[in-house]
Specification:
heterodimer; A: alpha/beta; Peroxisomal Thiolase, Chain A, domain 1; B: alpha/beta; disordered N terminus
């Protein structure tokens, strides 16, 4: 494999009621729950995408992160070969638990297809793909904690085998109102801005 | 072109050298193939109110058989039913391969819902087992893998996507060998969900047929060894791609765009023309939309005449296990030069002409394609070449 160097182009962190884009805080509010936080963030950035309100929390989290990082780089007049490689610890468990509650009581049995579809962690990849019309490589992984080495190696493979022009990779964890998203955009385009950083150091910032 | 060839040469060649599966039709590959050749199906009518209030058709492995097979390899009682099935799939191939489980040997676990049944009993310990990384660690620790397990959870393409991920990881020389296990169980959780989608068939599923009405669910585990070692190889993995439809989260693209592109990319990497394909092991869930979408994608690629089957009529839809299980069976198909019937098929019920295999027949298979599609708009295609 041709081992071309890859570079982090931009990154975003969402946690503790705050969104930090490329190291700069771009949105921060007083402590509240994720439902409220995500709604306020959506309004703050004047996003026009009503489907957002139908998403489960994990998809909302991944959507918000990808929205801010991809919107500036997506070109609408041509195809964007941006692969999606996301991972977390809790899979879709937050929605799984809600769905399980809807079927555990036979007296109050209300399984909903609209909830069931979100009992898959990769649905958030589908949501991002639809939003930005990304007909591209996508895969969702589960690890105990962020496996930065794996994510960066796997992204490098996609870039070096020309399966993608850029890769949006990172961590989107949501369970019981605890959340953290860290996404970064990687490509072969030279960018010395983060030359002393890697996924791990940026994630822990 | 010269540049491209040089780059191409530098990539390692990737093989599958061990396979196994645990299904209602048998606990090893040979028994499964015998059952398929006889026309047996794992799909049966079940009356089990712990799973569903009405009777339903599904392909379910006998718990007694799982337990007695497991007792022969371990005295441990702490493992869940799914974990036992996964261990049973991996155990003989790890042993048989003789591969040292060192830092160059990885372990990929692919599943859609893992131990989701743990959510039913909400003790803390039980709940912890619902985490997929915990499931993977339980299996990894059983065999004493030295590397951190990699879990792929990408809906119904998980099992075949794991093959392409393993191929890519070995080509990058991060690992030399990767064991993959894929598995999913029939659970109240999944049955009720497919039922809520009105996607369940009242009769055993009938992929690509006119009167198909939906899926029959199933459960299974499958395991393979992917390596860069040509010795003892069963099949070569020569191209792969996994492209999203970017269309709908719970319905396939009307034009089959993601699947079309996945197959196109996989063939391009394999450096073969579509006409070279001798067989397609398709997804064929038997829902009206899925099968129609596949037929459109195949037709757009000019694959009208290539023999196609869906193995869902034998195993039901085994979710994250299906792609790997069906690959294991397709490898036997290629190596035995036999096309297996697409069970449940009668009258063509898709708008495009495709060549569904109606009965078992002899055929020379040099190249075959495995495809899968799933919720979230995901699709995967992998091209395989027989070892000469």
């Amino acid at each position: 494999m041709t081992q071309n160097k890859t570079y982090i182009q931009s990154y975003i962190t969402i946690q503790n009621n705050e969104i930090v884009l490329n190291g700069t805080s771009v949105f921060k509010i007083e402590p509240t729950d994720f439902g409220d936080f995500s709604k306020q963030a959506y309004r703050n950035f004047e996003i026009q995408y009503p489907k957002f309100f139908k998403m489960d929390a994990l998809s909302k989290l991944a959507f918000l992160g990808s929205e801010l990082i991809l919107s500036p780089v997506i070109s609408t007049d041509q195809e964007n070969n941006i692969a999606l490689v996301l991972a977390n610890k809790s899979s879709s468990l937050d929605t799984d638990v809600k769905y399980q509650e809807s079927i555990s009581n036979k007296e109050n049995y209300f399984p909903s297809p609209a909830v069931f579809v979100y009992t898959l962690p990769n649905i958030c990849l589908g949501e991002i793909s639809i939003r930005h019309q990304l007909k591209s490589e996508n895969s969702f992984f589960i690890f105990d904690v962020l496996n930065a080495e794996f994510l960066s190696k796997y992204s490098e493979i996609l870039l070096n085998t020309n399966k993608a022009d850029s890769v949006l990779c990172g961590w989107v964890e949501y369970f019981n109102d605890n959340y953290k998203a860290f996404l970064c955009l990687i490509s072969k385009e030279e960018n010395e801005k983060y030359r002393n950083e890697n996924i791990n150091t940026l994630y822990n910032k | 072109m010269q540049e491209r060839n040089r780059n191409h040469k530098m990539l390692r060649e990737i093989y599958i050298s061990e396979t196994n599966c645990i299904t209602p039709l048998g606990f090893d590959v040979e028994t499964n193939i015998e059952a398929i050749l006889r026309g047996d199906s794992g799909i049966q009518l079940h009356n089990d109110i712990s799973l569903m209030s009405n009777s339903f058709y599904a392909s379910i492995v006998s718990t007694e058989k799982i337990n007695s097979a497991f007792e022969r390899i371990s005295i441990e009682t702490k493992y869940s039913r799914l974990e036992k099935m996964m261990i049973l799939a991996l155990e003989p191939i790890i042993k048989n391969s003789g591969i040292e489980l060192n830092s160059k040997t990885a372990f990929i676990l692919s599943t859609t819902k893992g131990n989701v049944t743990a959510l039913k009993n909400d003790s803390e310990e039980n709940f912890n087992n619902a985490y997929l990384d915990v499931l993977a660690k339980n299996i990894s620790d059983f065999f004493k893998f030295q590397t951190q397990p990699i879990v792929v959870s990408n809906a119904c393409v998980s099992g075949i996507l794991a093959v392409s991920i393993a191929k890519r990881m070995i080509q990058s020389e991060l690992y030399d060998s990767i064991f993959i296990v894929a598995g999913d169980e029939v659970s109240e959780f999944v049955l009720s969900g497919f039922n809520a989608f009105q996607a369940m068939s009242d009769l055993p599923c009938k992929p690509y047929s006119k009167n198909r009405t939906g899926v029959s669910l199933g459960e299974a585990t499958a395991a393979v060894l992917i390596s860069a070692e040509a010795k003892n190889a069963k099949i070569k993995v020569i191209g792969d791609s996994s492209i999203n439809d970017a269309n709908h989260i719970s319905g396939p693209s009307r034009t089959g765009e993601g699947l079309f592109r996945s197959i196109q990319n996989a063939l391009k990497e394999a450096q073969i023309e579509a006409a070279k394909l001798d067989y397609i092991s398709a997804h064929g869930t038997a829902t009206p939309f899925n099968d129609e979408m596949e037929a459109i994608a195949f037709s757009r690629l000019g694959l009208h005449n290539v023999p196609v089957n869906s193995l869902k009529g034998f195993y039901g839809h085994t979710l994250g296990a299906s792609g790997l299980l069906e690959t294991v069976i397709a490898i036997e198909s290629a190596n035995q030069n036999k096309l297996f019937e697409s069970k449940g098929f009668d009258e063509i019920g898709v708008s495009e002409t495709i060549n569904i295999i109606e009965k078992n027949e002899e055929a020379t298979i040099e190249y075959f394609l495995k495809t899968a599609s799933g919720f979230g708009g995901c699709n995967t295609a992998v091209v395989f070449e027989k070892i000469k």
